[in-house]
Amino acid sequence: MIRTSLSIALVLALAGCKKEPRGKGQAEADMAKMQELTDQMCACRRTDKACADRVQDAMTKYSIDMAAQSSSVRDIKPTAAEMKKMTELGQKYAECMTAAVTQPEPLPPSPEPVPPATPWTPAEVKAPATVEQLLAAARAWAPGVDDQFRIADLEAFYVDADGIVDADSGRVTIEPGLAPPGQEDDPKRRTGAPVKPSAARSTACLEVSWTAENGWARSPRSRCFDALTPFPRCTVAAIWKRAIAKGAPADALAVLKLREGAPRRWSFAIKDQPRNVDIRYSFDDDCELAVEKP
Question: Is 0.85 surpassed by the pTM of this model?
Fold first, then answer.
C-alpha cells in the first residue's frame, strides 16, 4: 500500500509539472530531480527515519512548487516511456522510504542462563590426600546436590598422624545430613546474625566414599542425619595428637569416626590383631574455631 501510494503521487507530481511552455528540457530536468530525490532516499540508512523525513519534505516541497507553476498552463501528457520511468522511480523511492522508516522487530529476550549441572560426585582429589582435603571437596559439592545438605557423618579408615589417607588400604566415607528445622545455617551468614527458618526438608539422602585407587563413588542412603555446622570442629591431625598424648603409636594407621550427635564425639581406634594392638579412644569434637575478623 505504501509503495503504490507513493508511486502514484510521484507520477502525478511529475505529470503535473510537464507544461507546454516548459518544453522537453524542463521535463528532463523534472525527471532528473526525481532521480536525485530517489537517490537521496535510498542513501538513508535502514531505520533512519530522520533522514527519510528530510528527503520526503524536499519531495513534498518540490511537488507543491511544480503544481503552483503549472496551475495556469495547459499540461502536456507524459509519454509512455516517461510514465514507465516515473513509475520505476516511484517504486524505488517507496521501497527505500519503507526501509528507512520501518523499525526492526525487537529481538526476543535472551533465555535465562542454565546453571551447570552439579557433578555426580565431589571434585577430584588426587592421592596422597588428607581427610581435610576430602571434607573440603565434599563440603563444596553437597549444597549443589541439595541446598539443605551439610556434612553430618565422617568415617576415615587407615589414616596416619598427619591426617593423610593410606594409599593402599585407606578409605573415607562422608555423608551429608540436613540442618534440623529452624537451625539451617547459611554459609554466607555472618557470625552473630539471626538464623533464617529452614525450608521443607529433603528426603534424598546419600553418601560418598573416596579411595586412592578409584577416587569418589556415590551411593544412596535410607535416611538423613541431622547436621549442625561447623562439622567437624577438630581436624584429624588434632585428634591424632590427643591420641598420641595418651600412648597411641605415632607411626600407626587409625580408624576415625565422627557422627553428628549430642555430645559430638570422635571415635579413634588402632587395631592390629597379629601385633596384639587394640587401642580405642573417644574424644570430644570441641576444638576452638577461628572467628571471622570484623
Answer: no
